């Protein structure tokens, strides 16, 4: 591009045509190459685009170079599509240096250093399904922020530092939106909230998915009201007012087609949760035998069967989804164990396994909820924490493991298309899940070694 000179003449005023060198600054910044050229004409194409009369160390040159890189790519819609979907890097721009040979190495090294200082990379893990329509949303972010986005087991954003920073916030916000949409769809399959004008009860209207999900969450958390767009929805009275009219609300669980396990005790139509003591029979004998083989020094105090229609329905909905996504994979593992503390029991019985109160003690294979084939692991005091009477608690569970990946420390999100993480791919004994509906607590066992 140029060498330092006391004159303001054209950059190639005293250029020796035999010392033209091409510098390729690839988007993959690990790759920098120089090529010699004996043709001064080869440099004219670039000089028609870049006429630089300042010193090589001027950072503005590098800003212009990176501007060229991203501006040129904006016109390549097909290339954008390839980058987002397959993660292929392009070749960047070609820079031709016109300089004395003794100054060339310094010039290239300076440009390389300045070039790299302007660029950065950010990686974002994700655990949502990226459909084609969702990929298009990511491409919009790429165009808007003039960055490159590559997708593999994580989303990688590459480009100029301020642009990458803004793009990262946009991608994170978009992933949160995708996750909320998935959750809303799952809740809608389980429960549908509706409303009607009390003067026209036949005119039943369904709440949109977002409001439906918020109402169901508020209901499960026993909240009395929910404020939505300046409207107070009274969950206790199942009413709200809009423009002087009074409306009534209905909550309908989609449980009529869901068959409950044969082992469950009878439940009323409106009975959603029932905790049933198990004192004998095959269920009791099976758990008792497991304790005798693996925990001979412990005695079982109580065994309770958890009959939760809402949890079970959500588990079955997710199971059908996993089966559709992974037709040739073992989806479910029964008889896995999860140790817990007394303070989490009520929440697990009512709402299932949530990372906020079930995934605090173990992180070796990811920051999720842990289940194990080995009851001795879950019976350890670190996981089934003794209360002040030295009584411990452990759940026997069914878990939707689906397609598994190797877990590791600091894993917060699964790679795309995977459903759980494990300690060993070939012979897994520990499973880590990241979705609240992915496990069902079949039995709660209270036990002690006293």
Automatic annotation (TrEMBL):
Keywords: Glycosyltransferase, NAD, Nucleus, Transferase. InterPro entries: Mono-ARTD/PARP (IPR052056), Poly(ADP-ribose)pol_cat_dom (IPR012317), WWE_dom_sf (IPR037197). Residues 260-450 form the PARP catalytic domain. One of its GO terms (biological process) is negative regulation of gene expression. Its EC number is 2.4.2.-. One of its GO terms (molecular function) is transcription corepressor activity. It is an enzyme of class 2 (transferase). It is found in: Nucleus. One of its GO terms (cellular component) is cytoplasm. The keyword Transferase applies. It comes from the Eukaryota. SUPFAM superfamilies: ADP-ribosylation (SSF56399), WWE domain (SSF117839). The keyword Glycosyltransferase applies. PANTHER family: PARP/ZINC FINGER CCCH TYPE DOMAIN CONTAINING PROTEIN, POLY [ADP-RIBOSE] POLYMERASE. This is Poly [ADP-ribose] polymerase. It comes from Octopus vulgaris (Common octopus).
